[in-house]
Amino acid sequence: MIESLLSYRVGDLRITRISEMSLQGGSPQELFNQNFDAEQFAAYRDKSTEHDLQADGEHLIQSIHSWLVQSPEYTLLIDAGSGNEKERPNAPIFHHLNTDFLTRLASLGVSPESIDYVLLTHLHVDHVGWNTQRVDGKWLPTFPNATYLFSAIEARYYASSASHNEVNRTSLGVYEDSIFPLIEAGVAKLIGKEGGEVLNGVRFIPTPGHSIDHMSISIESGGDVAFFAGDLMHHPLQVYNTEWNTRYCEFPAQASASRRWGLEYAADSGALWFSTHFAGTSVGRVYREDEQFSWQYR
């Protein structure tokens, strides 16, 4: 059975979470690696909700999902999950998946052909998989009428051997089956390092660090702002511990600086934060508390 799909209104936009996977049982020590501090984690428990930690208070709950954005002008998808049938031997949880992601889209009356744009915050394994699907042994664009927008720097980097490092090992092979086929098909539009507006009210914002040219995306409509942060954060723990990077942050100093910027931006602008890996509703507001921040689900 397909779970109820969460939708939000931001101006003239209808924004709906399309879930792919729920992740439970991961330890904060493993995810945050060198940044983990047991005392800070213990202090966080009082701020956490039932959506964030398992009942034992020791293990994380996370999500992998995409955001469907529907406006009078376009239908677009922000990030593209992990995909089905992909070879991911270095990341067993993504290896040869068979999820009902496209069925969830169809339940909203949205076919792959009706997607106009796919916007990618970065090119890690769990953000690009549904870009393509296997047809007669070949990887072809899943959304055949869509233009796929993503960073030119990221495309060059992940096509090169420079990306074959320990931090990025879970994403090895992603370029070949989920990025290059888009370029080959002529449906990719590469975004420069400066980001900028790509559609009316839709802007790529440089937030590097988690990946080499990671970008967040803001969409303004009717005076309201939706902020799609990508992987600035993987869990609400990081709202309260802004220096905590995950083991998947390739450029740690930049990642921390971008995370801090994103939190300040969301708190000061009142933008609604659409996360990529928070569980619960995956959506919330960021508030300032002196020099710290807090999170509230919506």
TrEMBL record:
CDD domains: metallo-hydrolase-like_MBL-fold. SUPFAM superfamilies: Metallo-hydrolase/oxidoreductase (SSF56281). It comes from the Bacteria. Residues 63-277 form the Metallo-beta-lactamase domain. Keywords: Hydrolase, Metal-binding, Zinc. GO terms for molecular function: hydrolase activity; metal ion binding. Signal peptide: none annotated. InterPro entries: MBL_superfamily_lactonases (IPR051013), Metallo-B-lactamas (IPR001279), RibonucZ/Hydroxyglut_hydro (IPR036866). PANTHER family: QUORUM-QUENCHING LACTONASE YTNP-RELATED, QUORUM-QUENCHING LACTONASE YTNP-RELATED-RELATED. Belongs to the metallo-beta-lactamase superfamily. This is MBL fold metallo-hydrolase.
